[in-house]
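Bumping my old thread because nobody answered last time. Still need a sequence for this structure:
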């Protein structure tokens, strides 16, 4: 649920799991601190990704919220359980195009759906795509206890008072056997052409009847799930970070008034301090990665987000990170049930 579902209905974009962006990670390589790792996960079914979609990792390197670097991933039509992917690297003006433009740095790379990853390199850039174990951990039944006491799904009113001091958490991780389709890139940090923070976000766009429609986005964990409504999620997923503050601030402030009794001044200050808007993951490679500076697999982003929403009133879930992650590329462990 970090971004495994979108909006209150908890369904994937357009009802298609292939289009669902799950999680975005950014951290220093554990084997070489001069390299940065970027991982975009999609599709909780961990099967072939959509051949008419463009999956993108976009990076702002100078703080103006405009893309300066973009990696685009375009997948082939799957045939007999096999699929390939092309990867494009765009810089400057080209990185702002929604199309897969720029230098094609990987061509027809086989997507790995079994236990063994397919790791390829082009110069100093390392890449792999395929099914991997999902590192995201959360107590789904506990979240339902917190927000769904009356049987109505409502992320705007946590039922802490109704629980009478009892923890909503079950202590059970709902994601221990889950897989995702992962797109992992590792590159020298100096390629990012920055000495400070970068802002990273993911996008999934679908080509339909000649038009390219933006159907999902990923930045801060849990924002797409908790801050949206069914009425706004399509617009939110299609929107761009430079417009986030003007378009979405009032909705975020309104939500926080319900979840944490924030007044407007408190909510705006918390959003600014967090850097929650624009919805881009901030990462300073010169500092240790741990959300909200980048994101690593051990970050309990649900506890973090619920503490933020409730002004510290929601107790921690007590869950532990998954233990099947790797210390080497592609960092996520082998997929469950895939030989």
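Sorry it took so long. Here it is:
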């Amino acid at each position: 649920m970090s971004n495994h579902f979108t909006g209150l209905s908890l369904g994937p974009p357009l009802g298609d799991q292939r289009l669902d962006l799950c999680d975005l990670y950014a951290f220093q390589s554990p084997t070489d601190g001069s390299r940065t790792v970027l991982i975009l996960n999609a599709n909780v079914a961990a099967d072939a990704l959509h051949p008419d979609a463009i999956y993108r990792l976009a990076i702002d390197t100078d703080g103006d919220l405009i893309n300066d670097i973009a990696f685009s991933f375009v997948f082939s039509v799957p045939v007999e359980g096999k699929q390939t992917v092309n990867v494009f690297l765009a810089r400057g003006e080209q990185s702002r195009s929604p199309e897969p433009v720029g230098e094609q740095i990987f061509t027809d790379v086989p997507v790995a759906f079994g236990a063994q990853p397919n790791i390829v390199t082009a110069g100093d850039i390392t890449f792999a795509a395929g099914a991997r174990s999902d590192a995201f951990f959360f107590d789904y039944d506990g979240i339902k206890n917190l927000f769904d006491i009356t049987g109505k799904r409502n992320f705007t009113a946590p039922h802490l008072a109704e629980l009478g001091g009892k923890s909503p958490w079950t202590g059970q991780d709902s994601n221990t056997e889950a897989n995702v389709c992962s797109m992992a890139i590792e590159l020298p940090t100096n390629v990012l052409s920055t000495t400070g923070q970068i802002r990273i976000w993911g996008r999934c766009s679908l080509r339909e009847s000649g038009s390219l429609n933006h159907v999902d986005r990923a930045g801060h964990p849990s924002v797409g799930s908790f801050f949206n409504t069914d009425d706004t999620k399509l617009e939110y997923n299609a929107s761009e970070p430079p417009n986030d503050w003007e378009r979405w601030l009032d909705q975020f402030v309104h939500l926080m008034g319900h979840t944490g009794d924030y007044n407007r001044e408190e909510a705006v200050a918390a959003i600014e301090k967090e850097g929650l808007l624009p919805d881009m993951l901030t990462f300073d490679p010169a500092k240790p990665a741990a959300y909200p500076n980048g994101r690593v697999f051990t970050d309990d982003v649900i506890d973090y987000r619920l503490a933020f929403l409730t002004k510290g009133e929601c107790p921690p879930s007590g869950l532990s990170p998954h233990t099947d992650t790797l210390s080497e590329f592609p960092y996520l462990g082998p997929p469950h049930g895939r030989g």
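The chain has six helices and twelve strands. Let me know if any region looks off to you.
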